[in-house]
């Protein structure tokens, strides 16, 4: 199948007029004009260069009977990748129910998130291992209309009670290599990230150095100061869970873990850009400090995403959704997000003044790199999976393709 007359997003941050052909689930052929424009320039009258190929010039490569979609100048972007979320539609991956996981993955795909790395909650070890095993079984039987399960992000249980947020403090425990390896084995190798609060885990540097050859270690729900966080990064931790949230903040006398993140160029950082968790100015500050390479947009969505206002459960605790806000019922602490990653991407661009290219790379290429799947995911290139989203100029979804298969069309119900 061909898609022609599209403005195709390229890794340099520009859109170029072009066409592409999808075959056997991958981008087989990509034809691009030489001139490109940033998203912020697309509303301006820009004449293409004389040598820019027109969509008609690609039609000679179209085989007889082959489908061709005219994008009519729509924006073609890579499918998004959410490496930290818990659920939606009343389902949570930690429920351990196969059909619930499938509902989650279909919802994500329909919303332009074509690859997922769900996060686990802080639960008893035996229960976590069972959830991980079920997810590994699900991975082997995934259906084409589901977002691809590309990893698992273990947010707990090696976190701090002082910064537990909405995690269940009853099941927090000390880190050890043996437990981490049992998690990895139960998941069939799907666990890609595992969190730690270094300040409450004696010997954390040895633990990080040993497990880093098998898993990527992240700073998660931590009360670590600037110095301790820096030691964790120097030992080999490479990622931080939801920057600013459930961690020590940035101050002129105490830079905190946030300061250590900004200062360490090998560390990637998650940002929840739902309009609730972080003030827009602090999001802009993070992008200036992290650049185009290190920021990663996440949703951190809960089972209440895509659901009406009301009360739901999170790891055995009651939460309440009101509009875009979701809180723990007893104390009112923010519990997580009710927005999917596409919504967070739109919010970053349209409400937080994050440049389109920066936000999109943070929701596609950068998570692919952190998970080690950039050979197949994250950008539109020949040979990569044909995970594509066609947007209109207002960033609303027109179509979604997962490995070349259309999972959402022009007339689909807006989910």
CATH architecture annotation of the largest domain: Alpha-Beta Barrel
- The CA-CA distance between the termini, in Å, is 25 Å
Structural class: alpha/beta
Percent of sequence in beta strands: 15-25%
**Tally of DSSP helical segments:** 10
Low-confidence stretches: 44-56
CATH class category of the largest domain: Alpha Beta
Mean pLDDT rating: 93
Q: According to CATH, what is the topology of the largest domain?
A: TIM Barrel
Largest sheet entry: 8 strands, mixed
The total strand number stands at: 23
Approximate shape? globular
Q: Classify the helix fraction into a percent range.
A: 25-40%
Radius of gyration: 21 Å
Overview of the structural elements:
- With 415 residues, the chain is an alpha/beta fold.
- The chain folds into two domains: 2-78 and 379-408, Urease, subunit C, domain 1 (Roll); 80-371, Alpha-Beta Barrel (TIM Barrel), CATH 3.20.20.
- The protein is built from ten helices and 23 strands.
- The protein has helices spanning 98-110, 125-140, 177-186, 204-211, 226-235, 256-263, 280-294, 341-350, 356-363, 365-371; strands at 2-9, 15-23, 26-32, 68-70, 75-78, 80-82, 87-88, 91-92, 113-116, 119-120, 148-149, 152-154, 191-196, 216-219, 239-240, 268-272, 295-298, 310-314, 317-322, 325-328, 388-391, 397-402, 405-408.
- Strands 1, 2, 3, 4, 5, 21, 22 and 23 form an eight-stranded mixed β-sheet that branches.
- Strand 12, helix 3 and strand 13 (191-196) form a beta-alpha-beta unit.
- Helix 7 packs across helix 9.
- The two termini are 25 Å apart.
